[in-house]
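Researcher: I'd like a candidate sequence for this fold, 349 residues long. If you have to choose between options at a position, lean toward the conservative one.
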Protein backbone atom coordinates (compact mmCIF):
# COMPACT_ATOMS: atom_id res chain seq x y z
CA UNK A 1 0.00 0.00 0.00
CA UNK A 2 2.79 2.43 0.90
CA UNK A 3 4.59 1.83 -2.42
CA UNK A 4 1.42 2.95 -4.23
CA UNK A 5 1.03 6.04 -2.04
CA UNK A 6 4.69 7.04 -1.96
CA UNK A 7 4.67 9.01 -5.21
CA UNK A 8 1.71 11.05 -3.93
CA UNK A 9 3.29 11.61 -0.49
CA UNK A 10 6.57 12.69 -2.08
CA UNK A 11 4.76 15.44 -3.99
CA UNK A 12 4.05 17.09 -0.63
CA UNK A 13 6.53 19.34 1.14
CA UNK A 14 8.52 17.01 3.46
CA UNK A 15 7.47 18.80 6.64
CA UNK A 16 3.80 18.74 5.58
CA UNK A 17 4.12 15.04 4.78
CA UNK A 18 5.57 14.47 8.25
CA UNK A 19 2.69 16.37 9.88
CA UNK A 20 0.27 14.21 7.89
CA UNK A 21 2.03 11.05 9.09
CA UNK A 22 1.77 12.16 12.73
CA UNK A 23 -1.94 12.96 12.31
CA UNK A 24 -2.57 9.61 10.59
CA UNK A 25 -0.96 7.76 13.48
CA UNK A 26 -2.57 9.99 16.10
CA UNK A 27 -6.07 9.25 14.83
CA UNK A 28 -5.31 5.59 14.10
CA UNK A 29 -5.67 5.94 10.33
CA UNK A 30 -2.89 3.34 10.14
CA UNK A 31 -4.30 0.08 11.53
CA UNK A 32 -2.34 -2.42 13.56
CA UNK A 33 -1.69 -4.86 10.71
CA UNK A 34 1.74 -6.02 11.75
CA UNK A 35 2.44 -9.29 13.47
CA UNK A 36 4.28 -9.17 16.74
CA UNK A 37 6.36 -12.29 17.27
CA UNK A 38 6.09 -12.61 21.04
CA UNK A 39 8.38 -15.63 21.17
CA UNK A 40 11.00 -14.51 18.69
CA UNK A 41 14.09 -15.50 20.65
CA UNK A 42 16.37 -14.41 17.80
CA UNK A 43 15.62 -10.74 18.46
CA UNK A 44 14.79 -10.58 22.17
CA UNK A 45 17.13 -8.57 24.36
CA UNK A 46 17.24 -6.21 27.33
CA UNK A 47 17.82 -2.48 27.57
CA UNK A 48 18.56 -0.91 30.96
CA UNK A 49 17.44 -4.17 32.62
CA UNK A 50 14.06 -4.07 30.87
CA UNK A 51 12.88 -6.63 28.33
CA UNK A 52 12.77 -5.70 24.66
CA UNK A 53 10.88 -7.71 22.02
CA UNK A 54 13.37 -6.51 19.45
CA UNK A 55 16.32 -4.07 19.30
CA UNK A 56 14.77 -1.76 16.67
CA UNK A 57 13.97 1.74 17.97
CA UNK A 58 12.42 4.88 16.54
CA UNK A 59 14.97 7.68 16.70
CA UNK A 60 14.23 11.09 18.16
CA UNK A 61 13.01 13.60 15.60
CA UNK A 62 9.97 11.72 14.32
CA UNK A 63 7.72 12.10 17.38
CA UNK A 64 9.10 15.42 18.61
CA UNK A 65 6.15 16.22 20.87
CA UNK A 66 5.37 12.73 22.21
CA UNK A 67 2.08 12.47 20.33
CA UNK A 68 2.24 8.98 18.79
CA UNK A 69 4.70 6.81 20.73
CA UNK A 70 2.08 4.18 21.55
CA UNK A 71 1.08 3.97 17.89
CA UNK A 72 4.75 3.46 17.01
CA UNK A 73 4.89 0.55 19.43
CA UNK A 74 1.95 -0.92 17.48
CA UNK A 75 4.03 -0.65 14.30
CA UNK A 76 6.49 -3.01 15.95
CA UNK A 77 9.23 -0.77 17.32
CA UNK A 78 10.96 -2.29 20.32
CA UNK A 79 11.53 1.14 21.86
CA UNK A 80 10.72 4.74 20.96
CA UNK A 81 12.62 7.95 21.65
CA UNK A 82 10.71 11.26 21.57
CA UNK A 83 12.01 14.81 21.28
CA UNK A 84 14.28 16.69 21.18
CA UNK A 85 12.42 18.58 23.95
CA UNK A 86 13.54 21.94 25.32
CA UNK A 87 12.40 23.58 28.59
CA UNK A 88 10.33 26.21 26.74
CA UNK A 89 8.38 25.79 23.52
CA UNK A 90 10.07 27.13 20.41
CA UNK A 91 9.28 27.40 16.72
CA UNK A 92 12.71 26.37 15.49
CA UNK A 93 14.36 27.70 12.34
CA UNK A 94 12.48 29.36 9.51
CA UNK A 95 10.83 27.30 6.74
CA UNK A 96 11.59 25.58 4.43
CA UNK A 97 13.76 23.51 6.74
CA UNK A 98 13.37 19.88 5.61
CA UNK A 99 14.58 18.62 2.24
CA UNK A 100 14.00 15.22 0.67
CA UNK A 101 16.94 13.93 -1.40
CA UNK A 102 15.13 11.15 -3.23
CA UNK A 103 18.03 10.14 -5.47
CA UNK A 104 20.14 9.56 -2.34
CA UNK A 105 17.43 8.12 -0.04
CA UNK A 106 18.28 10.88 2.40
CA UNK A 107 16.92 13.89 4.24
CA UNK A 108 18.51 17.20 5.15
CA UNK A 109 16.88 19.06 8.02
CA UNK A 110 17.58 22.29 9.84
CA UNK A 111 14.52 22.21 12.09
CA UNK A 112 16.25 23.62 15.18
CA UNK A 113 14.55 21.79 18.07
CA UNK A 114 11.00 22.87 17.21
CA UNK A 115 8.77 21.51 19.99
CA UNK A 116 5.91 22.36 22.36
CA UNK A 117 8.08 22.67 25.48
CA UNK A 118 8.73 20.36 28.41
CA UNK A 119 5.67 21.05 30.55
CA UNK A 120 3.17 20.69 27.69
CA UNK A 121 4.78 17.44 26.59
CA UNK A 122 4.96 16.11 30.15
CA UNK A 123 1.22 16.72 30.53
CA UNK A 124 0.61 14.75 27.33
CA UNK A 125 2.75 11.83 28.52
CA UNK A 126 0.86 11.78 31.83
CA UNK A 127 -2.40 11.45 29.87
CA UNK A 128 -1.09 8.65 27.66
CA UNK A 129 0.51 5.82 29.62
CA UNK A 130 3.35 4.32 27.60
CA UNK A 131 2.98 0.78 26.28
CA UNK A 132 6.70 0.17 25.82
CA UNK A 133 10.21 1.45 26.49
CA UNK A 134 10.13 5.25 26.09
CA UNK A 135 13.24 7.41 25.84
CA UNK A 136 13.07 11.20 26.15
CA UNK A 137 15.63 13.26 24.27
CA UNK A 138 16.36 16.68 25.83
CA UNK A 139 18.23 19.78 24.70
CA UNK A 140 18.59 23.50 25.40
CA UNK A 141 16.50 26.36 24.09
CA UNK A 142 18.09 28.36 21.29
CA UNK A 143 18.12 31.65 23.23
CA UNK A 144 18.87 30.28 26.68
CA UNK A 145 21.55 31.98 28.78
CA UNK A 146 22.56 28.70 30.43
CA UNK A 147 22.51 25.55 28.31
CA UNK A 148 23.75 23.34 31.10
CA UNK A 149 20.84 24.44 33.29
CA UNK A 150 18.42 23.63 30.44
CA UNK A 151 19.66 20.03 30.42
CA UNK A 152 19.21 19.82 34.19
CA UNK A 153 15.71 21.27 33.82
CA UNK A 154 14.82 18.55 31.31
CA UNK A 155 16.10 15.89 33.67
CA UNK A 156 14.00 17.29 36.53
CA UNK A 157 10.84 17.33 34.41
CA UNK A 158 11.07 13.87 32.85
CA UNK A 159 13.09 11.60 35.13
CA UNK A 160 10.01 9.98 36.67
CA UNK A 161 8.28 9.32 33.35
CA UNK A 162 11.02 8.13 30.98
CA UNK A 163 12.77 4.77 30.77
CA UNK A 164 15.92 6.66 29.82
CA UNK A 165 16.92 10.24 29.05
CA UNK A 166 19.11 11.20 26.11
CA UNK A 167 21.39 14.22 26.37
CA UNK A 168 21.48 15.65 22.85
CA UNK A 169 24.78 17.48 22.34
CA UNK A 170 25.02 16.70 18.65
CA UNK A 171 22.41 18.52 16.57
CA UNK A 172 24.07 20.64 13.85
CA UNK A 173 21.06 22.99 13.82
CA UNK A 174 21.56 24.72 17.18
CA UNK A 175 24.56 27.01 17.00
CA UNK A 176 27.65 25.80 18.91
CA UNK A 177 25.75 22.93 20.54
CA UNK A 178 28.48 20.52 19.45
CA UNK A 179 30.94 22.42 21.64
CA UNK A 180 29.80 20.00 24.36
CA UNK A 181 31.92 17.36 22.61
CA UNK A 182 34.91 19.10 24.15
CA UNK A 183 36.24 16.77 26.84
CA UNK A 184 36.17 19.35 29.64
CA UNK A 185 32.70 20.68 28.82
CA UNK A 186 31.22 17.21 28.39
CA UNK A 187 32.73 16.08 31.69
CA UNK A 188 31.29 19.14 33.45
CA UNK A 189 27.85 18.53 31.93
CA UNK A 190 27.73 14.85 32.90
CA UNK A 191 29.01 15.49 36.41
CA UNK A 192 26.20 18.03 36.91
CA UNK A 193 23.68 15.54 35.49
CA UNK A 194 24.88 12.90 37.96
CA UNK A 195 24.71 15.37 40.86
CA UNK A 196 21.16 16.25 39.88
CA UNK A 197 20.24 12.57 39.76
CA UNK A 198 21.49 12.20 43.34
CA UNK A 199 19.47 15.23 44.44
CA UNK A 200 16.39 13.80 42.75
CA UNK A 201 17.08 10.33 44.17
CA UNK A 202 16.73 9.10 40.58
CA UNK A 203 18.28 6.08 38.89
CA UNK A 204 17.17 7.11 35.40
CA UNK A 205 19.65 5.79 32.79
CA UNK A 206 21.51 8.56 30.95
CA UNK A 207 22.31 8.28 27.24
CA UNK A 208 24.46 10.70 25.23
CA UNK A 209 23.86 11.34 21.52
CA UNK A 210 27.09 11.91 19.59
CA UNK A 211 27.77 13.75 16.33
CA UNK A 212 29.16 11.75 13.37
CA UNK A 213 31.64 14.46 12.37
CA UNK A 214 34.36 13.85 14.95
CA UNK A 215 37.93 12.61 14.63
CA UNK A 216 39.69 9.63 16.20
CA UNK A 217 41.31 11.70 18.94
CA UNK A 218 37.90 13.03 19.99
CA UNK A 219 36.49 9.49 20.04
CA UNK A 220 39.07 8.40 22.60
CA UNK A 221 38.53 11.45 24.82
CA UNK A 222 34.73 11.26 24.65
CA UNK A 223 34.85 7.53 25.48
CA UNK A 224 36.93 8.24 28.59
CA UNK A 225 34.44 10.88 29.77
CA UNK A 226 31.45 8.61 29.16
CA UNK A 227 33.04 5.73 31.07
CA UNK A 228 34.21 7.91 33.96
CA UNK A 229 30.71 9.36 34.37
CA UNK A 230 29.03 5.94 34.17
CA UNK A 231 26.82 6.82 31.23
CA UNK A 232 24.62 3.81 30.39
CA UNK A 233 24.54 4.14 26.59
CA UNK A 234 25.69 6.26 23.68
CA UNK A 235 23.77 6.95 20.46
CA UNK A 236 26.00 6.91 17.39
CA UNK A 237 25.18 9.05 15.60
CA UNK A 238 23.20 12.17 14.88
CA UNK A 239 22.91 13.79 11.44
CA UNK A 240 25.99 15.00 9.57
CA UNK A 241 26.60 18.58 8.49
CA UNK A 242 29.22 17.41 5.98
CA UNK A 243 29.35 14.12 3.96
CA UNK A 244 28.02 15.78 0.81
CA UNK A 245 30.69 14.84 -1.74
CA UNK A 246 28.99 11.76 -3.23
CA UNK A 247 25.38 12.97 -3.17
CA UNK A 248 23.45 13.11 -6.45
CA UNK A 249 20.39 15.18 -5.55
CA UNK A 250 20.32 18.83 -6.58
CA UNK A 251 19.47 19.83 -2.98
CA UNK A 252 22.65 18.35 -1.53
CA UNK A 253 24.09 21.76 -0.60
CA UNK A 254 21.19 22.73 1.66
CA UNK A 255 22.38 23.69 5.14
CA UNK A 256 21.43 21.25 7.89
CA UNK A 257 21.88 17.71 9.12
CA UNK A 258 22.07 14.88 6.60
CA UNK A 259 20.42 11.55 7.48
CA UNK A 260 19.70 8.30 5.66
CA UNK A 261 21.71 6.02 3.40
CA UNK A 262 24.62 8.43 2.71
CA UNK A 263 25.77 8.33 6.33
CA UNK A 264 25.41 4.56 6.81
CA UNK A 265 29.08 3.68 6.24
CA UNK A 266 30.29 6.70 8.22
CA UNK A 267 28.04 5.71 11.13
CA UNK A 268 29.22 2.08 11.06
CA UNK A 269 32.89 3.10 11.13
CA UNK A 270 32.24 5.41 14.07
CA UNK A 271 30.28 2.72 15.93
CA UNK A 272 33.17 0.30 15.50
CA UNK A 273 35.73 2.83 16.79
CA UNK A 274 33.61 3.59 19.85
CA UNK A 275 33.04 -0.15 20.38
CA UNK A 276 36.81 -0.68 20.60
CA UNK A 277 37.23 2.26 23.00
CA UNK A 278 34.25 1.54 25.24
CA UNK A 279 35.17 -2.15 25.67
CA UNK A 280 31.63 -3.31 26.48
CA UNK A 281 31.36 -0.89 29.42
CA UNK A 282 28.66 1.19 27.71
CA UNK A 283 25.87 0.07 25.38
CA UNK A 284 25.78 1.44 21.83
CA UNK A 285 22.63 2.45 19.94
CA UNK A 286 23.49 2.60 16.25
CA UNK A 287 21.77 5.08 13.93
CA UNK A 288 22.30 6.05 10.32
CA UNK A 289 21.04 4.45 7.11
CA UNK A 290 19.06 1.61 8.69
CA UNK A 291 16.34 0.55 6.24
CA UNK A 292 16.71 -3.24 5.91
CA UNK A 293 17.74 -6.34 7.79
CA UNK A 294 21.13 -6.26 6.10
CA UNK A 295 21.82 -2.66 7.17
CA UNK A 296 20.75 -3.54 10.73
CA UNK A 297 23.00 -6.64 10.62
CA UNK A 298 25.99 -4.47 9.67
CA UNK A 299 25.28 -2.14 12.58
CA UNK A 300 25.37 -5.09 14.98
CA UNK A 301 28.60 -6.41 13.44
CA UNK A 302 30.15 -2.96 13.93
CA UNK A 303 29.29 -3.03 17.64
CA UNK A 304 25.77 -1.68 18.09
CA UNK A 305 23.66 -3.36 20.77
CA UNK A 306 20.49 -1.72 19.45
CA UNK A 307 19.54 0.32 16.38
CA UNK A 308 17.34 3.30 15.68
CA UNK A 309 15.91 4.66 12.45
CA UNK A 310 13.77 7.51 11.14
CA UNK A 311 14.69 8.35 7.52
CA UNK A 312 14.37 4.67 6.61
CA UNK A 313 10.66 4.79 7.42
CA UNK A 314 10.23 7.87 5.22
CA UNK A 315 11.44 5.84 2.23
CA UNK A 316 10.25 2.33 3.10
CA UNK A 317 6.98 3.09 4.89
CA UNK A 318 5.33 2.12 8.20
CA UNK A 319 5.98 -1.60 7.73
CA UNK A 320 9.74 -1.10 7.99
CA UNK A 321 10.12 -2.87 11.34
CA UNK A 322 8.49 -5.98 9.92
CA UNK A 323 10.75 -5.79 6.87
CA UNK A 324 13.87 -5.53 9.04
CA UNK A 325 12.78 -8.30 11.41
CA UNK A 326 11.99 -10.72 8.58
CA UNK A 327 15.31 -10.00 6.87
CA UNK A 328 17.23 -10.35 10.13
CA UNK A 329 15.62 -13.70 10.94
CA UNK A 330 16.79 -15.10 7.61
CA UNK A 331 20.34 -13.76 8.03
CA UNK A 332 20.67 -14.88 11.65
CA UNK A 333 19.23 -18.32 10.92
CA UNK A 334 21.76 -18.78 8.12
CA UNK A 335 24.50 -17.70 10.55
CA UNK A 336 23.33 -20.38 12.97
CA UNK A 337 23.04 -18.07 15.98
CA UNK A 338 20.36 -18.30 18.65
CA UNK A 339 20.19 -14.55 19.37
CA UNK A 340 21.44 -11.50 17.49
CA UNK A 341 23.57 -10.42 20.47
CA UNK A 342 26.02 -13.20 19.54
CA UNK A 343 27.15 -11.18 16.49
CA UNK A 344 27.53 -7.78 18.18
CA UNK A 345 31.03 -6.46 17.50
CA UNK A 346 32.05 -9.45 15.36
CA UNK A 347 33.63 -7.07 12.85
CA UNK A 348 36.27 -6.34 15.51
CA UNK A 349 37.00 -9.97 16.40
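Model: Candidate sequence:
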Amino acid sequence: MFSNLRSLIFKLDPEKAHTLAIKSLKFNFVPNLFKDEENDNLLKTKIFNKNLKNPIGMAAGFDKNAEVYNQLFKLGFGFVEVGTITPLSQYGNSKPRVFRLVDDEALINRLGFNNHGAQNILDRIKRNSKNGILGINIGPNKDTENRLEDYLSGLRVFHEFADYITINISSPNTENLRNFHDQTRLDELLKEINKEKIDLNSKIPIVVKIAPDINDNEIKKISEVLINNEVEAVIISNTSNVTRENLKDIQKHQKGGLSGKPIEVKSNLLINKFYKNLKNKIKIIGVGGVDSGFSAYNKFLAGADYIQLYTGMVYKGPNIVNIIKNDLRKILTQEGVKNFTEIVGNKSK
